[in-house]
Design a protein that fits this description.
Elements (H helix, E strand, L loop, with lengths): L1 E8 L2 E8 L7 E5 L2 H16 L13 H11 L8 H12 L12 H10 L14 H22 L25 H10 L11 H15 L3 H5 L6 E2 L4 E4 L10 E4 L2 H10 L15 H14 L9 H10 L5 H8 L4 H8 L4 H8 L5
Helix pairs in contact: 2-3, 2-5, 7-9, 7-11
């Protein structure tokens, strides 16, 4: 009979499986999730009992085969398209891509993890950002997990008990009012004017992000029927956000004024507010920042700046509802810019 014990240590939570059978030595294994522990235990117990009702492990499948099936079966259920590029790159460059999945060991995984910065993935000798390494590691771990739990291609994943690459520090870039004005001028936008070009639409979308903490994709995907200027609310429907969960976004007075500039004429609720090529806005935003003399800043930094500004007028639960964060720790760690000067000014007025 198998027993599963939850263990919490410095490296996180793991599940230790012990299978005890009369006439056999006790078998142990440690896995990162309870689901994986149950699958492994059922397979091992079936082997010990010669149970014909348990499906055997499918043999002869390589890591490249697993990546191909993951792209076909799993990726279409995800919103992000960037994972397709990552998986294709791993299939072509992973040192053990041609190996059988059952032959990949923990040493293979740890060696790949530790030598990734010096590999030829992104050019010889070019350092890979820690956030990119973490995404690659997490995606390949998912491929092995699905192969274990759903396809029965392996009995145990080599990623068990292996720590991922070190987490990168959250970005700390913010936007001052002077930086915002400089960017708008570089994009050819003047306050209060209706946009005539894509660059001007990009400027207004950025200003809306500063006022609302909405993501770029959420803003560019808006339709007229989702914006209620009378109630000062934008409704993001299920499936239209990064988390697939809808939310309602409250609007500041400045945000209402910005939305009035891009609201389409007519009564069609499905009319889009922005007529832009979203992919090209990445290069246009980068060019605008360069022309404005700005440093390492991104459109998404506006979300962090907005969260910091809104925190002065909302409590933490209201701010989480505005941004769509279910994890308050993420909201604090990533999107809230700590300001000791402001805290010190408040404490200067009181004595405790």
């Amino acid at each position: 009979m198998a027993s599963i014990e939850k263990r919490v240590g410095k490296n996180g939570t793991a599940y230790r499986v012990a299978i005890k059978r009369v006439g056999h030595d006790t078998i142990y294994n440690t896995l990162p999730s309870k689901a994986e522990a149950k699958v492994w235990a059922s397979i091992r117990e079936a082997e010990l009992s010669n149970n014909p009702n348990v499906s055997p492990v499918i043999k002869g499948k390589t890591v490249a085969d697993a990546i191909d099936r993951y792209v076909t079966d799993v990726c279409p259920t995800h919103k992000s398209k960037s994972e397709l590029r990552a998986l294709d790159y791993m299939k072509r460059t992973l040192p053990f891509a041609g190996r059988l999945m059952s032959e990949v060991t923990k040493d293979d995984v740890t060696t790949w993890r530790d030598t990734m910065p010096r590999s030829a993935w992104h050019g010889v000798g070019k350092e890979i950002k820690s956030s990119t390494k973490l995404r690659y590691f997490a995606k390949l771990r998912c491929v092995f997990k699905v192969a274990l739990l759903e396809w029965q291609w392996i009995r145990v994943t080599p990623f068990a008990d292996i720590k991922p690459p070190a987490h990168c520090k959250p970005r700390s870039a913010g936007w001052s009012d002077s930086d915002i004005r400089a960017l708008c001028l570089a994009l050819g936008y003047r306050r209060g004017q209706k946009p005539q070009t894509q660059r001007q639409q990009l400027a207004i979308a950025f200003l809306i992000a500063i006022q609302t903490a909405m993501r770029k994709g959420e803003i560019f995907g808006l339709q007229a029927g989702q914006v209620d200027l009378a109630s000062r609310i934008v409704t993001l429907r299920d499936g239209e956000t990064k988390t697939d969960e809808g939310r309602q976004v409250a609007l500041t007075t400045e945000a209402v004024a910005l939305f009035k500039l891009v609201m389409p004429t007519g009564n069609r609720p499905d009319a889009r507010l922005f007529n832009v090529n979203v992919k090209s806005t990445v290069n246009e935003f980068r060019a605008g920042c360069k022309a404005a003399g700005l440093g390492d800043v991104r459109f998404h930094d506006a979300r962090r700046e907005s969260a910091t500004r809104l925190s002065k007028h909302m409590n933490v639960m209201e701010l989480a509802a505005q941004t769509g964060h279910s994890n308050i720790n993420t909201l604090y760690r990533v999107y809230y810019k700590k300001n000791a000067t402001a805290r010190a000014a408040k404490l200067a007025k009181i004595a405790i």
